[in-house]
Design a protein that fits this description.
Elements lengths: L4 E5 L3 E7 L5 E9 L5 E6 L1 E4 L2 E7 L5 E11 L2 E12 L5
Parallel strand pairs: 1-8
Antiparallel strand pairs: 2-6, 3-4, 3-7, 5-6, 7-8
């Protein structure tokens, strides 16, 4: 299985989404980590209702690999989901 990867341009806003229509997740947050697993940004997710959540992160201006981590509580269980984020710069010839 290949991990999910998001590709975005450096310096843009990353909108990540989380769907869990089967149960309420509370609290829920999204965090960005750099390649050294240092926290770059963390934000509480916004509910769009019916189990849909989103979070906005401003990406750095340099090309790099990052990890987006969703963390929430469903009933009494902690839920964690991670995905790769590839931040790319514009290449010109």
């Amino acid at each position: 299985m290949r991990p999910a990867t998001i590709e975005k341009l450096a310096g843009t806003t990353l909108k990540v989404t989380f769907v869990n229509s089967g149960a309420t997740v509370s609290p829920i947050s999204s965090a960005l980590f750099d390649r050294n697993e240092s926290l770059v940004n963390s934000i509480a997710a916004v509910s769009s209702s019916n189990g849909f959540y989103y979070a906005l992160h401003l990406l750095p201006n340099s090309a790099q690999w990052m990890i987006n981590e969703w963390r929430g509580v469903i009933s009494t269980n902690t839920y964690v989901e991670r995905q790769f984020v590839r931040v790319r710069t514009m290449e010109t010839d």
